[in-house]
Amino acid sequence: MNRSISHALFERAKKVMPGGVNSPVRAFKSVGMNPPFIARGYGSHIWDVDGNEYIDYVNSWGPLILGHAHPAVVDAIKRQLELGTSYGAATEIEVKMAELVCELVSSVEIIRMVNSGTEATMSAIRLARGYTGRNKIVKFAGCYHGHSDSLLIRAGSGATTFGVPDSKGVPGDMAKDTLICKYNDVAMLKDIFEKYGSEIAGVIVEPVAGNMGTVLPHMDFLRALRDLTGKYGALLIFDEVMTGFRVSLNCAQGLYGIKPDLTTFGKIIGGGLPVGAYGGREEIMRYISPDGPVYQAGTLSGNPLAMAAGYATLTLLKDNPEIYHELANKAEYLKKNFCEIAKENDIDIKINNVGSMMTVFFNDVDVVDYETALKSRTDMYAAYFKEMLEQGIYMPPSQFETFFISTEHSYEDLDKTIEAFKLAMETLRR
Ligand code: PLP
């Protein structure tokens, strides 16, 4: 594939932007390549500036469950566009959006719109602290909740420990209030609560982890989260920025039957435009300004274009709930074929998925937490990624990411993907 125009753009970009990008993973560093620059997308496909076509499994990292430029979403945006792009004032579409999310997600009685997943989780943490009057929060190693200071922290050595910042610029003092637990580790969670229970404001968790690759929650882990937070008076925060309206119409909490106190959203609820939201029990959400003492605001929050795109997306999903079944079938089709091909080629892979969110781990152990995810062969992933890209299959440029199937992926797309996977595995075997 010739990507000379992309390469030239990347050189220009690096001169004026950190790493040439506006979000680190886009720089393709972990697969040791230059990124293609994308010119357009339609349905399940994207085209780069050199005219190369790809079947897209990144889907803007999750928002595009209906694929690129879905007519229902484009029409909704166009209609709003004619009426203006932002007023910084109350609008009807915000009310409709809030009502729709509250209808679909029973734990959400009140919701506040923001502009990104990061803002949503950051605000939910502030609310948990403001509501409980406590400072500590628990997060899980390998879970990503955006880049706010309290949350940009992972585990040290797997012992119960105070967090250490992942980034320069995060004060150590801030990190000390973030307790790190292993995902799916009930015993460790109990231990943390026994030691610090009365100081813990909330536990934030990806109910299906997607940011160490896809990692499924064990049912006893989800139950322990609910029971322990309840017992110690801490809030349970489900970060459904990725899973919300992706794994089911009622999100991960509907799928697993666990009711959190607060939920954060992003991605799909913006239909591809910048958005985030947090919501939950009325009694807690009334602490948010102007009803209550926890301040949070935003010039573009509830932006009419984002609301229009998100509302069109959620309405389409609500009106066609069979979509989730179809997505799950497509995922199973890919998974079954990928597993067979890898086996034929003697390559160890483990595939984790919940419906249309999925990761192929180059790993010989089951991936159940961050530690096991880190055992993956990132060199093999990089080689696989390159082979797939060369054949026009655009997968996430990192082992520790999730890929997504949209309603627009046809079985023809899936068959092409399987064919590419076969060639990639044959190349890797050599
Ligand atoms: N929470 C989860 C689970 C995410 O996957 C992400 C982003 O990938 C975020 C929060 C942060 O969202 P944003 O990138 O919109 O700030």
Q: What is the third-level CATH name, the topology of the largest domain?
A: Aspartate Aminotransferase, domain 2
Strand order of the largest sheet: 4-13-12-11-10-5-9-7
- Secondary structure tally, helices: 14
CATH architecture of the largest domain: 3-Layer(aba) Sandwich
Number of domains: 2
Name of the CATH homologous superfamily of the largest domain:
Type I PLP-dependent aspartate aminotransferase-like (Major domain)
Report the radius of gyration as a whole number of Å: 21 Å
**Cα shape:** globular
Distance between the termini: 22 Å
The level 1 CATH classification of the largest domain is: Alpha Beta
> Which percent bin holds the helix content?
25-40%
- List ligands, each type once: pyridoxal-5'-phosphate
- Please identify the structural class as seen in this structure: alpha/beta
Mean pLDDT: 95
Features:
430 residues, Aspartate Aminotransferase, domain 1, Aspartate Aminotransferase, domain 2, 2 domains, 14 helices, 17 strands, globular, binds pyridoxal-5'-phosphate, PyrdxlP-dep_Trfase, glutamate-1-semialdehyde 2,1-aminomutase activity
Structure characterization notes:
The chain is of the alpha/beta class. The protein has two domains: 4-69 and 322-429, Aspartate Aminotransferase, domain 1 (Alpha-Beta Complex), CATH 3.90.1150.10; 71-319, 3-Layer(aba) Sandwich (Aspartate Aminotransferase, domain 2), CATH 3.40.640.10. It is built from 14 helices and 17 strands. The strands form four sheets. Strands 4-13-12-11-10-5-9-7 form an eight-stranded mixed beta sheet, with helices on both faces. It is globular, with a radius of gyration of 21 Å. The two termini are 22 Å apart. Mean pLDDT is 95; it is low at 155-161. It is found in: Cytoplasm. The modification N6-(pyridoxal phosphate)lysine is found at residue 267. Pathway: Porphyrin-containing compound metabolism; protoporphyrin-IX biosynthesis; 5-aminolevulinate from L-glutamyl-tRNA(Glu): step 2/2. GO terms for molecular function: glutamate-1-semialdehyde 2,1-aminomutase activity; pyridoxal phosphate binding; transaminase activity.
